[in-house]
Amino acid sequence: MDNDLLLVETNEGITTVTMNRPEALNALSGALRQTLADTFHTLRDHAETEVIILTGAGKAFTVGLDLKELGGETASTKPTAVTDRDLGEAVANVGKPVIGAVNGFAITGGFEIALMCDFIIATPNTRFADTHARVGVVPGWGLSQRLPRLIGINRAKELSLTGNYLDAETAYAWGLVNRVVAAEDLMSTCEGLAADIVSTEPVTRSEIRRIMDAGWGATLAEGMTVEKSASRAHDKSQRPSDQVASRREQIQDRGRHQSGE
Question: What's the topology of domain 6-198?
Answer without folding.
Answer: 2-enoyl-CoA Hydratase; Chain A, domain 1 (3.90.226)
